[in-house]
């Protein structure tokens, strides 16, 4: 398995720290972190990560808008949504704009590692 570089996007420093530990323990690399959608777009364009773990609910720009903006710039972007919501309408909408999948909080290391490998085609 190649070194998968992941951009962590969440407005919670705590969640980014937890995700960072999970990503590292699972054998992936944290390429960078962002606290909101606008920062996520800038970091994505600068860092060119292999995958983005994107929180859905953030201010001022949410994960949906950031996902759409990143995919407009790079249709090959792989974005995995992280959400507390099990709202099917929102999740279907996210898949339609191009997100590759979602994981719900609270999340397990195994679930995240499995989903990243699936998205990366490994």
Question: What is the fold's blueprint, element by element?
Answer:
Layout: E1 5-9, H1 13-25, E2 29-34, H2 37-47, E3 51-55, H3 63-73, E4 79-83, H4 88-97, E5 101-104, H5 109-119
Parallel strand pairs: 1-2, 1-3, 3-4, 4-5
Helix pairs in contact: 2-3
Protein described:
The protein is an alpha/beta fold and 122 residues long. It has one domain: 3-Layer(aba) Sandwich (Rossmann fold), CATH 3.40.50.2300. The protein contains five helices and five strands, in the order βαβαβαβαβα. The chain has a five-stranded parallel β-sheet with strand order 2-1-3-4-5, with helices on both faces. Helix 4 (88-97) links the parallel strand 4 and strand 5. Helix 2 packs parallel to helix 3 (63-73). The longest helix has 13 residues, at 13-25. It is globular. The termini are close together.
CATH superfamily: Response regulator
Structural class category: alpha/beta
Principal-axis shape equals globular
Percent strand equals: 15-25%
Q: Please tally the helical runs, counting DSSP H or I stretches of 4 or more residues.
A: 5
Question: What's the level 1 CATH class?
Answer: Alpha Beta
| Strand elements, count | 5
């Amino acid at each position: 398995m190649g070194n998968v570089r992941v951009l962590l996007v969440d407005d919670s420093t705590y969640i980014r720290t937890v995700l960072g530990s999970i990503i590292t323990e699972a054998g992936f690399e944290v390429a960078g972190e962002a606290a909101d959608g606008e920062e996520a777009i800038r970091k994505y364009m600068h860092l060119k990560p292999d995958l983005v773990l994107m929180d859905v609910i953030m201010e001022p720009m949410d994960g949906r808008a950031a996902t759409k903006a990143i995919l407009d710039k790079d249709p090959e972007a792989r974005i995995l949504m992280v959400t507390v919501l099990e709202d099917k309408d929102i999740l279907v909408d996210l898949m339609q704009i191009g997100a590759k999948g979602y994981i719900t909080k609270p999340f397990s290391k195994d679930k995240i590692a499995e989903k990243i490998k699936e998205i990366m085609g490994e």
